Amino acid sequence: MSFEVDVARRLGDRDIAVRFTSPAGLTALFGPSGAGKTSVLNMIAGVLRPDAGRIVVGGQLLFDSEAGVDVPPEARGTGYIFQDGRLFPHRRVRANLLYGARRGDGGSRLDEIVDLLGIGDLLERWPATLSGGEAQRVAIGRALLSGPRFLLMDEPLAGLDRARLERLLPVIERVRDALRLPILYVSHDAAEVARLAGQRIDMGD
Amino acid sequence: MWGELTPAEWTAILLSIKVGFWSVAGGLPVAFGLAWLLARRSFPGKLMLDAVIHLPLVLPPVVTGYLLLLAFGKTGPAGRWLNDWFGVSVMFRWTGVALAAAVMALPLMVRAMRLSIEAVDRRLEVAARTLGSSPLRTFAEVTLPLALPGIIAGAVLGFARSIGEFGATITFVSNIPGETQTLPLAIHNALQLPGGDAVVLRLSLISIVLSLGALVASEMLARRSLRGRVAHVL
């Protein structure tokens, strides 16, 4: 099992409660906006604390409210690809890519990842000058170079036009097939999920 | 015109710069800590703390000087403490000038830095954490560089305010040439003397040059630290 998640969290007047286990490969967390999908990713990444529950990824216990386990986010080995990219505006693309690499392998896979994502000619650019699709590919590269044990992708294709989306989809498929990391992929697009995911977990309102 | 500066005027100029430097060097870390508290934490008494920090901005400076006198005088609590523990006093010393200047500059430094800390996108800090950075490292590599323009602005405003401080200084540590007589105090002194007009004019011009220089320097530094962060700039 790659993800074993059983968490509950109250956010404002909303209760988020999910329980699922997923096999290896890419698992989609599917549901309408506002269902709390991003909150689930945040809890797995350790940047939102569940009120109660237990999170195990790839056999490693990350959170257990009963046992008092709460691994800090920097020690979880998360490769988190945010919906909004979140590149560091004060670092060039190359420095963004290498930001998490000291936890990984020090950046020795930079060339390989750059090739995989097709971002070779962006390395000296500033994030503010990138298009949405370019920024998202850099963000994926940054996460991959941080030596992650698993990936969390929060609607990485949202906000892209059809053409850019069509170019980025195969990139995500390559990442899925080449790196063999457990991936939890949030989306509200059924077609996208059908194309990418081995398993789909539905989150309702 | 520069050749006409007397040793006493040079002393006042250099003292002003020294006071400005130490006021900012000592006050900036304190101001940053306070700005951080106000920007990032919520705690009981926050409004009160905010008000107290801003007090020197709105109080008559002579009142601030008097309060410093009460606190740091021979019998004041802070003055006794400094004397008992370190055997020093800031009374009638240039260190007292720097202290008065720092207190007067504090609200300006806190305001500038608070705004810049509040403007830092905390989602970037979250991203840094997931990429393996400890809270301290995240602060040093993400928060601090992103808040840098505000820190520079705070430092320069603080410096300019410090070299211009008059009321609190003269009340607190008097007007002693060579020890507490900064540029504004020297100007004030010259104004009292018959035939001091030329000195007043010279020192005023120097004040303007110093202040303008500080502002230009801060603008250049701020632009440099913003390098690449604004869209369409390569």
TrEMBL record, chain A:
Q: Does the keyword Nucleotide-binding apply?
A: yes
- Coiled coil stretches, renumbered: none
Matching InterPro entries: AAA+_ATPase, ABC_transporter-like_ATP-bd, ABC_transporter-like_CS, Molybdenum_import_ModC, P-loop_NTPase
ATP-binding: present as a keyword of the record?
Answer: yes
Q: Which GO terms describe its molecular function?
A: ATP binding; ATP hydrolysis activity
Instruction: Give every ABC transporter domain span.
Output: 2-205
* Protein name (Swiss-Prot/TrEMBL): ATP-binding cassette domain-containing protein
One Pfam family this sequence matches: ABC_tran
Query: What keywords sit in the KW lines?
Result: ATP-binding, Nucleotide-binding
